[in-house]
């Protein structure tokens, strides 16, 4: 691995761990609740984020130019929540654009098992081919569209392994039962996706703590942080699990104590 690739990975992964803050949801969901004004939403959260996962449009219009949090640039899209199939994605943003925007990494979604499986996997392959030429790491997102029932260890292991085989340097996937089977079958680092907001705050801390114990290097959580009524205490609690090896109960105390501070 060349120095440039190693250096960019070290920017987004700190001492082998990471807390990525995704705010790319608008590329298919539009003005998501609590993300209507992305710049205002992320301002208090940036100090606790290891990297920001964002589209070029929101980066240019909502993120201050003096921001020092590394950028993972979302480079796939082409569909919306009201369209026929979320899996019908293409590459939307060039490597040259990623370089112009000083991105530390790029990311896109793959939809294994969908009608557009081949297309999205070739998107990943094309992106890796181009990104490797500039020493830019690629994060593959194992998306499942609306089919949430696919989130089991066998399916996610398949997705993560294929993404790694095609050259992704990091894979973002969902937590599931027997998550260690997913991590152990993937030869590159795995980060945990959040998905829709959970019913309780403690559920988030539980699945993050379990995922870290089972080998994940961190998380890529958005809605379960910035849609929370107390987003700063929540991101502090999650950060404690990732970077300080806190248990779910210890993290929950940080969260509950933080809620009391005005």
Within the CATH hierarchy, at the fold level, what is the topology?
TIM Barrel
Q: Specify the helix fraction band.
A: 40-55%
Give the end-to-end Cα distance, rounded to a whole number of Å: 47 Å
Q: How are the strands of the largest sheet arranged? A: 1-2-3-6-7-8-9-10
Unreliable residue runs: none
**Overall form:** globular
| Name of the top-level CATH class | Alpha Beta
Order of helices and strands: HEHHEHEEEHEHEHEHEHEHHH
Looking at this structure, what is the CATH superfamily? Aldolase class I
Question: How many structural domains are formed by the residues?
Answer: 1
In the CATH hierarchy, the architecture is: Alpha-Beta Barrel
Question: How large is the radius of gyration?
Answer: 17 Å
Largest sheet: 8 strands, parallel, barrel
- Mean pLDDT over the full residue set: 95
User: Got a strand count?
Assistant: 10
Find the structural class using helix and strand composition.
alpha/beta
Beta-strand content bin: 15-25%
Counting H and I runs of at least 4 residues, what is the number of helices?
Answer: 12
Structure characteristics:
262 residues; alpha/beta; TIM Barrel
Give a short synopsis of this structure:
42% of the residues lie in helices and 15% in strands. It is α/β, with parallel strands linked by helices. An 8-stranded parallel beta barrel has the order 1-2-3-6-7-8-9-10, surrounded by 6 helices. A two-stranded antiparallel sheet has the order 4-5.
Account of the 3D structure:
This protein is α/β, with parallel strands linked by helices. It contains 12 helices and 10 strands. Helix 9 runs parallel beside helix 11, helix 9 packs antiparallel against helix 12 and helix 11 packs antiparallel against helix 12. The N and C termini lie far apart (47 Å).
């Amino acid at each position: 691995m060349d120095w440039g690739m190693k250096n960019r990975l070290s920017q987004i992964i700190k001492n082998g761990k990471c807390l990525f803050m995704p705010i790319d949801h608008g590329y298919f969901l539009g003005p998501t609740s609590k993300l209507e004004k992305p710049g205002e939403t992320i301002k208090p959260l940036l100090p606790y984020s290891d990297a920001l996962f964002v589209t070029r449009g929101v980066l240019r219009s909502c993120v201050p130019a003096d921001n020092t949090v590394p950028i993972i640039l979302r480079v796939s899209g082409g569909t919306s929540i009201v369209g026929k199939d979320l899996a019908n994605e293409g590459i939307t943003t060039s490597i040259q654009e990623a370089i112009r925007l000083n991105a530390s990494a790029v990311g896109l979604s793959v939809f294994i098992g969908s009608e557009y499986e081949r297309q999205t996997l070739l998107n990943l392959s094309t992106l890796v081919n181009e990104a490797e030429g500039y020493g830019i790491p690629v994060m593959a997102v194992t998306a499942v569209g609306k089919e949430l029932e696919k989130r089991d260890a066998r399916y996610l292991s398949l997705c993560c392994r294929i993404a790694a085989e095609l050259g992704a340097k990091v894979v973002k996937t969902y937590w599931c039962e027997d998550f260690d089977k997913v991590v152990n079958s993937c030869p590159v680092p795995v980060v945990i996706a959040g998905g829709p907001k959970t019913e309780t705050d403690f559920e988030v801390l539980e699945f993050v703590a379990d995922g870290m114990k089972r080998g994940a290097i961190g998380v890529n959580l958005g809605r379960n942080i910035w849609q929370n009524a107390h987003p700063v205490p929540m991101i502090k609690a999650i950060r404690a699990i990732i970077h300080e090896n806190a248990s779910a109960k210890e993290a929950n105390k940080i969260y509950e104590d933080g809620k009391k501070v005005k």
